[in-house]
Amino acid sequence: MNPDASTIAAGAPIEVDLSPIAEGQDIKVFWRGKPIYISHRTKKQIEEARAVNVASLPDPQTDEARVKSGHEQWLVVIGICTHLGCIPIAHEGSYDGFFCPCHGSVYDTSGRIRQGPAPSNLPVPPYQFVSDTKIQIG
Amino acid sequence: MSGPSDYQPSNPALQWIERRLPIFGLIHSSFVAYPTPRNLNYWWTFGAILSFMLGMQILTGVILAMHYTPNADLAFKSVELIVRDVNYGWLLRNMHAVGASMFFVAVYVHMFRGLYYGSYKEPREVLWILGVIIYLLMMATGFMGYVLPWGQMSFWGATVITNLFSAVPYVGDSIVTLLWGGYSVGNPTLNRFFSLHYLLPFVIAGVVVLHVWALHVAGQNNPDGVEPKTEKDTVPFTPHATIKDMFGVACFMLLYAWFIFYMPNYLGDADNYIPANPGVTPPHIVPEWYYLPFYAILRSIPNKLAGVIAMFGAIIILCFLPWLDAAKTKSSKYRPLAKQFFWIFVAVCILLGYLGAQPPEGIYVIAGRVLTVCYFAYFLIVLPLLARIEKPRPVPNSISDAVLAKTGSRSTPMVSTAIVLALAGSLFAGSIDSAKASEGSDTPPGNKWSFSGPFGTFDRGALQRGLKVYKEVCSSCHGLSYIAFRNLAEAGGPGYSVAQAAAFASEYKVKDGPNDAGDMFERPGRPADYFPSPFPNEQAARAANGGAAPPDLSLITKARSYKRGFPWFIFDVFTQYQEQGPDYVAALLQGYEEKVPEGVTIPEGSYYNKYFPGHAIKMPKPISDGQVTYDDGSPTTVAQYAKDVTTFLMWTAEPHMEARKSLGFQVFVFLIIFVGLMYFTKKKVWAASH
Ligand code: FES
Fold first, then answer.
1. Residues of chain A with pLDDT under 50
2. Which residues in B lie closer than 8 A to residue A101 (C-beta atoms)?
3. I want to staple A120 with a disulfide (CB 3.0 to 4.6 A). Which of A59, B156, B387, B590 is the partner?
4. Which pLDDT tens digit goes with each residue over B596-616?
5. A8 inside domain
6. Cβ of A137 under 8 Å from any chain B Cβ?
7. Residues of A known to be catalytic
8. Is the CB–ligand 1 distance for residue A130 below 6 Å?
9. Domain for residue A3, yes or no?
10. Quick check: helix, strand or coil at residue B508?
11. Complex-level ipTM
């Protein structure tokens, strides 16, 4: 009962052009049926994400480890709450990141879990930059 | 099934079969001569009621499956087409959907009955465990059935529930992928759920056979909890139990029919009339009412894995009940302390159910934790302890002694039980509505609708005017894709003739093709065509309207609701109030205000609306006084337009509403007579035994 061949084939990598996304904005694309948030973070958001004491987080991870170096302004995460799979809303919640309406999990500007029942950070999908304004997800 | 039967059919043909396959003897010994305790009360009829419901679900389900399409793109539509176009499809669907809820009502009564009278004790442990297995299978079946209409709640309910398994350490994610057949809930998920939803009821039927078999080996428990000793303690199953069960089933059918014909959407969720959208999570995800207590337990534990374990544990613990409660006395009738704790436990379950439907914040979370502890404490602390410290009252020597000693005091607990259970049902059910998000919006005022109440019909004039308003105003942005022009001439609708509907259709341009040259072309509409949508797809609709796609209006009056709150949702069961949707739509159309109140900021491109959740709506004020002309002299005011178009949209949401209500009346007349006849027959049969 595992995914059939066509489902796997449809899950091949996709390319996304980043140039239309202005600073402070974000877009949602679908890959493998999952929503992927690509946000163009502001200076302030990046600073907020880096200022926290990593050891104090429920799922400790530095912001550096969650973005590609040289492209700090881009945060790419799978927009599926690690609790029970709802889609968190961007730019909401007390950490300026994501807020999940289902059971109230709050994520910060790096997509890390800060509050609520979710056990871990929003996962970062496999991706790389093919050029400065284009990424390939998958 | 208690030993070989000495039954001999008198008909030679039957004798011939009986010698080769002793099936008549089996039936005779199990359902005719079978001795049943003579002191059983009406709580014992729920076994028969459950069998009846299982039969009903299988029967309606098999027919529904003949019309249903298990495909992510078509499922929602196929369900709507069943309701609209299949002969009595609306009835089948209501029977099946309401039937699921009624099945659970009955199973909860049946389980609490077993709990109260100690029906799980020696020698009925296996019987009880088989029952828990049936209950688990029912939960799985009910959940998968709820996914099939592929609405928003179906989709997100499926997402949340399947994700429960991701909490399993190490293999969790692979299990979830296996359940989905993909990387997220999607078409393969729907297909396998359909397959399993069709299979599981037959598995349930199989386990029911085992359950009944075990019952007939151990014999039925009874309200006094003493085993039958002599002939005098029992009566033959037929006619005594048969007729009593039939009376019970008939009474239950009254309740069932009340929901089928008068409140079919009360037990469901308005969001499930919005097609599934993997990109948008509804603000509150609420499972069906029968899972709410367990959902509350899940949410009250802040750790994911622990929450999932607690939730499943809450059910599995039932299997160990026969050993957790070691008290020798079976029936709580003779256990003063156990009786009180039982009722506290019932209250805990009801309150947990209520909390399961509330948003997980503040006081609700704390209350949820306290009650979760109470739930488990009942099984793990109270019952084992009571077995040690409680001094039960003496039990009667035999059932016939108990029957003879029967005093008037017996009826009091029965009344309180009935009250608590009625409360339970309505509280559970209504709490779905109360979970609706309504933050930051006013409650729409109630209206007098011609279509409300048990005899409601549509006002033809309002339907015709509403159609005009839709055509001249709404249709420039909103589709009406489930309504065909032919519907305009159907009974219970706006009352146009077939020729008028055809003329109406021909004013539209409909895209058809490809023709012989392979090109698409436009032609005038025909009665069989559906109202064309203003935009070719959702993205185009979104782009043309500042990012918010105008929703299709066919189902809007059923897909919108607002919080009714406690205690209104209980009264609603009796008053049949179910016009939240129309009230909301009518209020929204009149809720625009030029002046934005102090403290509310409305973003660029949005408008202030008093009744829209959050107040900032993308739709500009759609209509103003005098915009549409009426030929029949009705006032051309916004209030009148709103009323007319809402009536019209109520009809588009349920074109067969009048048929539903008028058939309901006939069914009720029949059922009431039937219940009366059953009651007197039962009295006659039992006259000698009391
Ligand atoms: S699914 Fe996001 S908090 Fe539960």
1. none
2. 281, 283-284
3. A59
4. 888 777 777 788 888 888 788
5. no
6. no
7. 103
8. no
9. no
10. coil
11. 0.75
